[in-house]
User: Fold this.
Amino acid sequence: MLQILRKSVSSWVGILILALALGALVFTLFQPSTPGSTSGQSGAVLATVGKGAIQESDYLGAVDRAVARERERAPQLTNPEFLAAGGGEMVLQQLIAGKAMNSFGAANGMAISRRMVDGEIASIPAFQLNGKFDEPTFRRLLAEQRISEEELRESIATDLMRRQLLQPVLAGTSVPRAMAEPYAALLLEQRSGVILPIPSAAMPDPGKATDAQLQAFHTENKAAYTLPERRAFRFAEFNGASLRDKAKPTAEAVRKYYDDNPLEFGGLEMRNVQQVVLPDEAAAKAFVAEVRGGKDFGLAAAALGFEEGDVALGALSQDQLAQQVNAQSAKAAFALAADAVSEPVKSGFGWHVLHVREIQAPQPQPFTMVQNVIEKKLEDEKLAELLSETVGKAEDQFAEGQSLADVAKGLGAAVQTSPALTADGRLFDENYGATRVMQPLLSKVFATEPGEGPQVVEAEGGNYALVEVTDVVAPALVPLDKIRGDVEMAWSVKSRSDAAKAEAERIAAAASKGETLQKAIGGRNLPAPQQLTVRRLELTQMAQQGQQVPPPVVMLLNTPKGQARVIQAPGGQGWFVVKVEDVKPGAPEEAVQLVDAVRQSLVRDAGNEMAESFVRAIERDVGVVRKPDAVKAVNRRLTGATVE
Assistant:
């Protein structure tokens, strides 16, 4: 999600036009990261969508999952950083758009069948074993994620509805080549100019600040001198290690699993089967006669309008064939010799004719070869079940009023105490010095309501923790006399920076009137100006490779010829004066492949804009009312917002 925000700045489209990213409409498989997640909702209403609502619990869960996914790329990401980058707004918009599309689809007679959801579940690699859907694996993962089958099905059905609504919009967009040529020409444009750095350190010493100046500076920048909300809490971590002995299967259970699942270990005969289903018995018998007379089964089926995908069932066991077709047809197919055709078999769908293309004899793996694999599988499944039961029992005990210490004692888990920390893990001492404390439970702590009592949360690595917030310290402005030295230093840095900015603006104004930078500088002791010639295409390639494009170079691309502009240096170290001296237009006719690439990119962006517009139209049709004050209150708890 945050990757989309970063890419929109570094891509050439982000430089040239304000693209509407489809990122706000991309939905992932619902995977709750907190235990006890249910389809039930709770907390304040953040937005109403038609007759439905986005509630606080929906938003907190979605933010938690989004941050967890982003931390796979940026492990140090904090909730405040995620929200500051616009992640919270994108998550909320996802929730609103999803609920709006569900409502719109239902109102217009669109439905998602159970069979469609079944197909999606079966295609998820995590639920597969040896390339095929595995029921025990499916159940185990649901237990580990603490999500019910109904919740998963509901989420997948929602995702399918979104796809049905958006894919036709995305596929139906087109951009003419002539529209891409101006953008390609802009990428090929060559610019020459000069960049003058003006360091803050080169400015005169502003002297010692007066008490009035310091007080005014402290007041103007109170956000920088405010301690954010901090929370102290108790916690006790636990995992399945203590349950592993109870989870070990008996030798009898391992052997029984092997005997009960011959398909999994190659112990069943498989048959590669083809099938056609015809509406009446006469047609079916005529088809059988034709194939037995020497005509290829597939060609005979094609002559009746069947495609290969309609005919081929693949290699199946008898039970699998019975589940896919019916028991009578499976029995008939497994009574045939190779390359034989069955007599017509009647069912509620018509008359089935089956052809056995190939018989695959059983090739069972010896029990001794798979014994350890089965034992590990059964142990993991039982461990997940026991852990789920343990978590459920702990939640029940909290609901009955038991304390965190009592529940932790029953689990054999040690209770630990955390000092008051900010949402991003800062600990302040009595002198307001800050240190970082790595505490992975912080996101859970700040997502809870103060006074909510102890609860069970999922920690990292599939572990769990009992957590209870014991104190909430409200945001507080640090008095000036406690940090006078820091404020004096910041005032001095700001004063020099303001002086450097004023000098940069004076030089830029003179340069824009035709003076050379050297003349505008006069005799001042500043670094020498630097000449630079660049093309947008080169900078775009840098951005695509993950390289940082310096801000003054970006400014060079966006300043008119003969004019000078001012831009701040990174880290507040000073300012740059950027003057464009020459602009050579690009010639798209000399870069045909670039024009094609630009056109394809515009097609994608046009589709994204169309999808964005379509979703906004759906939201207007359904009716969306946001509750910004409620959203702000939730975000304050997630970040420990500063005093306004």
In short: Confidence is low (pLDDT under 50) at residues 1-40. Residues 2-177+598-639 form a domain with the Triger factor/SurA peptide-binding fold fold (CATH 1.10.4030.10). The CA atoms of residues 125 and 131 lie 8 Å apart. The longest helix spans residues 367-399.
